Amino acid sequence: MTIYNFSAGPAVLPKEVLQQAQAELLDWHGSGMSVMEMSHRGKEFMGIAAQAEADLRELMGIPSNYKVLFLQGGASQQFAMIPMNLLRGKTSADYLNTGEWSKKAISEAKKFGSVNVVATGADKNFSYVPEFSTWKRDPDAAYLHYTPNETIGGVEFNWLPEAGDVPLVADMSSCILSRPIDVSKYGLIYAGAQKNIGPAGLTIVIVRDDLIGQTVAGTPTMLDYKTHADNDSMYNTPPTYGIYIAGLVFQMLKRQGGLAAMEQTNIAKAELLYAAIDASNSFYNCPVALSDRSRMNVPFTLKDANLDGDFLKQADARGLLQLKGHRSVGGMRASIYNAMPLAGVQALVDFMNEFAKKNS
Ligand SMILES: *Cc1c(COP(=O)(O)O)cnc(C)c1O
After folding, report:
1. Is the CB of 94 under 6 A from ligand 1?
2. For the chain, which end, N or C, has fewer CB atoms within 10 Å of the first or last residue's CB respectively?
3. Same domain for 124 and 241?
């Protein structure tokens, strides 16, 4: 039976990447060592890390005045590092609140300065992106933070907030590499790797170099972007195996035609799944506003929540795993990141159609 893993994260990885890692597990390129056993300062691993960075720069078109940092601590640690590094003597930052991850970023930022919430989706249970014209922005904000894809609520931006001179900061944990973006529009982009890049334990930060080096007093060395930027992410031991796997993913994405090709596949997958939900005569419902539906995380409920248990059990038996929705939302959630093939979404849709027919 083919298994399709719809987990929100850690999530499915490309089979060919796992197979390559398996083939190289005990002896990387004739070195006689596993990548896990290598010194991060040896020429083999330095080469692996440099290649991963070069490939990510190529895939995303990262300009040369941006640093790429390979860190640990998850996206959650960035919730603190961002205000510590980016307030730069200012007292307030702008935050958009579109759901669970925005809220966590906001509550952490409040420890370091005042937070101006420019707009919130709370009035409609975080099921949409508030229109840009309604945002109450502070022209003197240190930066503007938003979450382009709310992994739990399934709310995604299909447009770019134009922040002007205020550095735009984006938590791309669950949408990085899913479509082409213009990196030069951002001051800082960050993402935990375990959704759309690689294994848990690696966090990627892409930061414009003029924003580095003006931390709040008392910032620990490890939480200062300058420490990592000045040392090519090798100030201390980086998450070496995670960087290696991420590098394999980047190479595979390049072979497959880059982010424009990924976007086409991701659109096709999302359209297939949303079409099935919308054509189900309200047997399935997606609570998210049409224009703001995520291509990566698709939350949906069943008309009768008493059927949830049967749905999950039967899906499991068909090899369709990890469809249970987040505990704060309930229902189901299908995460269909880059590594989920169209065939996986088709298998899910086939099952959903059958299940609806049997239980209507
Ligand atoms: C998963 C996720 C996080 C948290 O990531 P950790 O690496 O577990 O800290 C933050 N933001 C978004 C949008 C996420 O999807």
Report:
1. no
2. N
3. yes
